[in-house]
Write a structure and sequence with these properties.
Layout: H1 2-23, E1 32-33, H2 35-42, H3 46-58, E2 62-65, E3 69-72, H4 77-101, H5 107-123, H6 129-146, H7 151-170, H8 175-194, H9 197-214
Antiparallel strand pairs: 1-3, 2-3
């Protein structure tokens, strides 16, 4: 039993190491690796690494190629469109449910964080804004996802967030994009606080369209 538990723990740790490598860009979009190379990068045994790869493949993050190894998801235009459309639809439903249920706790904090970052970017007062912006950008999307209040939808949202992380390593959050992105998020927050479902879903759609445009995807 202990051996089984140890194996399961290693597999879970290897999966988290793989997730980290995809998020931080250690593994890049379209990259080919042999299993031995992946084992070396993750620093986990082959069996645990294989289990992590299975999970990643089930979520569309990796593809296995017999006798060749694995390939990281490619950030193609169609993939980017699909991922952002997926997020938009779940963001919109999360917004609807939060408004319907009156579950808007925490929005004041989100608004303040967005306004502070917007103003800092407008004044160009910090060189580390793009990394900081990613965290604040994700905070609103996480807030909307939490409004779904459904573990299956939350799991699907989380997997898609990993796919978007791979894309963001190819198309980073540029300094010049921060102000407009924060304004778009603030429009979503304003609509949520006003209880205006139509305005919220329209603002989420507009944010998706603008993100696609900034990423050069028609």
């Amino acid at each position: 039993m202990n051996q089984m538990q140890d194996g399961q723990l290693l597999a879970e740790q290897a999966q988290e190491a793989l997730w980290d490598a995809l998020r931080n860009g250690t593994l890049r979009d379209g990259q080919f690796l042999s299993m031995s190379q992946l084992v070396e990068i993750l620093e986990f045994p082959l069996a645990a690494t294989r289990e992590a790869v299975k999970q990643a493949c089930s979520q569309g993050l990796l593809t296995t190629w017999p006798k060749r190894g694995v390939q990281v998801m490619e950030a193609r235009s169609e993939t980017i469109r699909d991922c952002l459309d997926f997020r938009m639809v779940l963001d919109q439903e999360g917004a609807r449910r939060r408004i319907q249920q009156g579950d808007l706790t925490g929005l004041d904090t989100l608004r303040a964080q967005h306004e502070t970052l917007r103003d800092a970017a407008a004044n160009n007062t910090a060189s580390d804004l793009p990394p900081q912006a990613i965290g604040i950008d994700l905070s609103l999307h996480d807030y909307l996802a939490a409004g779904l209040n459904n573990p299956q939808l939350a799991a699907a949202y989380s997997a898609n967030r990993m796919r978007i992380a791979i894309i963001q390593n190819v198309r980073p959050f540029l300094q010049v994009r921060i102000v407009s992105a924060m304004e778009e998020h603030l429009a979503i927050i304003e609509a949520l606080q006003s209880g205006d479902t139509t305005a919220a879903t329209d603002a989420i759609r507009y944010h998706c369209e603008q993100t696609l445009q900034w990423w050069g995807v028609d």
